[in-house]
Amino acid sequence: MSRHGYTYSAGKLLRHGLTRGAWPRMWNRPERRDSYDVIIIGGGLHGLATAYYLAQNHGITNFAVVDKGSLGGGGSGRNTGIVRSNYLTPEGVAFYDRSLHLYNTMAADLNLNVMLSRRGHLTLAHTDSALRTMHWRAEVNKLQGIDSSVIDPADVKKEAPSLDVSPNTRYPILGALFHPPGGTVRHDAVVWGYARAADHHGVHLHQQTEVLDILCEGGTGPEGKGPGGKVTGVRTSRGDISAPVVVNCTAGWASLISNMAGVPLPITTHPLQAAVTEPTKVFLPTVVVSGSLHVYVSQTDRGELVFGASVDPVGTYRVNGTLEFTEELAGHVLELMPGISKMRLMRQWSGLCDMTPDYSPVMGFTPVDGYLVDVGWGTYGFKAGPVSGETMARTIATGKTDEMIAPFNLSRFTEGDLVGEKGAAAVGH
After folding, report:
1. Of 221-225, 231-235, 415-419, where does mean pLDDT reach its minimum?
2. For residue 423, which phi and psi values (nearest 5 degrees)?
3. Which of 36, 194, 320, 329 is deepest in the core (most CB within 10 A)?
């Protein structure tokens, strides 16, 4: 047994294949307790990473993760699995670079293959102004020690041979911001790895447990909620659970959950759609992004092309795909790679993005004692999952805001100290 439970290895894979023995459950289904020291709302990447680091690094295990559906069934299972650290602000760069480091060691740390592929990340420039922006971002990245540089069309062709870099296209490629450490990871494997490791430490993982209300007392609002109050627990579809600390890690549902504690958040929720083609021979070795065309694409090891675009302009909680997205996506992708026009689109979906005014998260303590948030990630959430869990766990364990998340406090919206990360988005929001 490893520190995270059952040890996976090539030898055990062979033995199970020959004997047809049953694999153990990755995590248990414990009986619900009436009280815990901490309750984490949201069984996605952020909630499970917080659970793992809280147990692994700080020895706190009497707590539970609750989710209204299945672990990883929300935004963590509805993204394109791209990871990178070439952001724009010093606060963002430091944060995402730490997350990328944790991704690089995750397979060994969790004893589970998360299929990290450091294939490189290309952000294309189609105009002179876009190229100037890429140079700006590259210099900011270099000052923060990030491997990032601007390359010319010839080098773009070397990294992505399928792209047309001739000057005769409608959207000529004038260069690109190249980030070699960027790449992709298997999103569900990351979630399963953290869930398995947290479970091994004794953390209770409760699926199909919807939070109906956050119980508070002493606040200035109705039912003791709001500023000046403190958390006493949560009301769930399976009964009330008492706890002095409640952490909101619910992504697209963040504002609705936070309202239950009397803490409104400056967040709007928008769907972010994605799509996958039929598999074909691997021909795209890097992640390719075009902000001008509002599209990004990568290719899986199985040969499927994975596409994403900008968030839907209208805020809803819809998680299905739309014909409008398909039509727009097809037009933009074919501008980049007209040779794939005959490929069939096999499936599409959307995930919910919790967008803040400055396109940066809201993390840490709130005016309600014992109520913490890790929300507002917009389109960046999966990239930041590991470091968010690490820093939130440290914040909970010490009772002090971790230095790395201090710039992302809720009070910045009233104090005017915003963190403007929109310029580092993969595509235009």
Report:
1. 415-419
2. -65, -15
3. 194
Single-letter code of the amino acid located at 265: L
Do residues 380 and 261 share a domain? yes
- Looking at the structure, do residues 211 and 347 belong to the same domain, yes or no? no
Q: Is residue 128 part of a domain?
A: yes
**Buried-exposed string 197-216: b where 16+ CB fall within 10 A, e elsewhere:** bbbbbebbbbbebebeebbb
* Ordered strands of the 211-217 beta sheet: 211-217, 230-236, 239-242
83 inside domain: yes
Question: What digits encode the pLDDT tens for the residues 20-67?
Answer: 777 778 899 999 999 999 999 999 999 999 999 999 999 999 999 999
Residue 277: CA count within 13 A, CB half-sphere = 23
284 and 347 together in one domain: yes
- Cα distance between residue 83 and residue 199, in whole Å: 25
The conformation of residue 117, written as its DSSP 8-state character, comes to: B
Q: How far apart are the first and last CA of the chain?
A: 46
Residues 234 and 257 in one domain: yes
The residue out of 355, 379, 408 marking a domain boundary is 355
State whether 381 and 345 are in the same domain.
no
E strands, 34-80, are 38-41, 63-66
Domain boundary among 355, 381, 408: 355
Three-state DSSP state, 303: coil
| CATH label of the domain that carries residue 303 | 3.30.9.10
Q: Which residues contact 47 (CB under 8 A, 6 or more apart)?
A: 40, 41, 65, 67, 247, 249, 374
Q: How many CB atoms are closer than 10 A to CB 266?
A: 15
Pairing verdict, β 204-206 and 121-125: unpaired
What residues make up the domain containing 191? Answer: 30-112+187-266+358-424
Torsions phi, psi of 192, nearest 5? -65, -40
Helix (H, G, I), strand (E, B) or coil at 295: strand
User: CB of 251 within 8 A of CB of 352?
Assistant: yes
